[in-house]
Design a protein that fits this description.
Layout lengths: L2 H17 L5 H9 L3 H28 L3 H18 L6 H32 L4 H25 L7 H17 L9 H4 L4 H5 L10 H29 L11 H4 L1 H26 L1 H21 L6 H29 L5 H31 L9 H22 L6 H8 L2
Helix pairs in contact: 1-5, 1-6, 1-7, 2-10, 3-5, 3-15, 4-5, 4-7, 6-12, 10-15, 10-16, 12-13, 12-14, 13-14, 13-16, 14-15, 14-17
Length: 419
């Protein structure tokens, strides 16, 4: 079988597993479990907790003892078992620990899938820079397809979303053992210190003001991403409780509406080189922050009927909000860190966004929504919620250009020219 097709299939299933429940778990939580928003925020924090610790730990295991593709498969099989057991949980505390275990198995597979793909392509003398991005795009397609499957089968509030994810995770886990071998390479690269293997030497970047500020804003933008993941689908789902919206398309297929965000993401990835050349990294990051303001603001005034266009426009804006900071931020790290710590610096960037940022967004938003935006009948003041989030993003956007003093230098321009 063609190696690129095999890697496409791996990426498709990798993100299908995540897309089957990530944006719809909120609807399942609030309409089936009836537990609190603060408790839900804690549940969503499991992604951040896992992103802080697990990728580094499994990286050590893959470096020293187990083929990456085998470890990848084992983690997905364990994850499938955990996903299958989630609907059986009857209290929020147990749900937290089971979800934390699920994310502990899933989050490392994201980086392991990249390791497996790079290794396979290089062994077959295939240009990684040219060929990997189109392969990875199929991961986004898998995420979209999962959303559509869950929505069209009306499982957005059903436990079936976890069974669907579990079945695909099990299939991927078994399939992984047929992938090209990716053996441990530590003996080929020499012994590394524990600090080096965990990427802790990259923390020295915090001593440099521009990096300290950059990583701080990475955390704050990571929180914004978590807010839209956690509450976007739930927000649309709640309109079904309002009589005039019950028959609207948005209420019938909220996950499909939300999947426009992923379509937008693929478009704005292609637009990034133009924007980077035209405006430079700093202002592309700023555009991302303004896009988050629009993302949340449009949600505040949108509805599934006459205001559906605002929800759709918000989903389109999401691609700019998400991609412009993540891609340009990654390029900032790549071009301005010493070669010997670039990999660990990229890991630190992702830790701040998907780890600490996700954790901060989950915990803070859950408490705020419970305290200020949950009405006596347990319904949510979504207008107030989204305006508060928009205000949060606006404050970040106003502060950023004044404190992040960075000029678009020749080295970065050269790197952009080769995107």
């Amino acid at each position: 079988m063609n190696i690129k097709f095999r890697l496409i299939l791996m990426n498709f299933m990798q993100y299908f597993v995540w897309g089957a429940w990530l944006l719809t778990i909120g609807a399942y939580w609030f309409q089936n479990k009836h537990w609190s928003g603060a408790q839900f925020g804690i549940i969503f924090s499991t992604m951040g907790i896992s992103a802080i610790f697990m990728p580094a730990l499994t990286g050590i295991i893959a470096d020293k003892w187990i083929n990456a593709e085998k470890l990848y498969g084992i983690l997905h099989i364990f994850g499938a078992a955990v996903l299958f057991s989630l609907p059986l949980v009857t209290n929020p505390t147990t749900f937290f620990w089971i979800m934390l275990l699920n994310m502990a198995f899933y989050m490392p597979t994201i980086s392991l899938s990249i390791t497996v793909a790079y290794s396979a392509l290089k062994r077959n003398d295939i240009d990684v820079v040219k060929e990997y991005p189109p392969i990875r795009t199929w991961g986004t397609v898998g995420f979209i397809v999962a959303l559509w499957v869950v929505s069209l089968t009306h499982n957005e509030t059903s436990a079936n979303q976890f069974y669907i994810a579990s079945a695909v995770a099990l299939a991927l886990g078994i399939y992984s053992f047929s992938l090209p071998k990716c053996p441990p390479l530590l003996h080929k690269t020499g012994n590394k210190s524990f600090v080096d293997m965990l990427g802790l030497n990259a923390f020295a970047l915090f001593k440099t003001p521009k990096f300290a500020i950059f990583f701080a804003f990475s955390l704050l933008l990571g929180a914004a991403l978590q807010l839209t993941n956690a509450y976007g689908d739930t927000f649309i789902q709640d309109f079904k409780n309002v009589a005039i919206y019950k028959g609207s398309i948005g209420v019938k297929y909220p996950a499909i509406i939300m999947s426009i965000s992923q379509f937008s993401e693929t478009f704005f990835i292609l637009a990034i080189p133009f924007f980077l050349r035209k405006f430079g990294i700093k202002y592309v990051m700023l555009i991302s922050m303004v896009a988050w303001v629009l993302r949340f603001g449009l949600f505040a005034y949108g509805d599934p009927a006459g205001g559906l266009w605002m929800i759709i426009l918000s989903c389109i804006v999401y691609g700019m909000a998400f991609d412009f900071f993540n891609i340009s931020g990654s390029l900032f790290v790549e071009t301005l860190t010493p070669r010997e710590i670039r990999a660990s610096a990229q890991g630190l960037f992702m830790m701040m966004v998907n780890g600490f940022g996700a954790l901060f967004g989950s915990l803070t938003s859950g408490v705020l929504i419970d305290k200020f935006f949950t009405l006596p009948d347990h319904s949510k003041n979504w207008h107030g919620i989204w305006l508060t989030f928009a205000g949060y993003a606006l404050v970040i956007a106003i502060i950023f250009p004044f404190v992040f003093r960075y000029k678009h230098n020749a080295a970065v321009k050269h790197a952009i020219a080769h995107i």
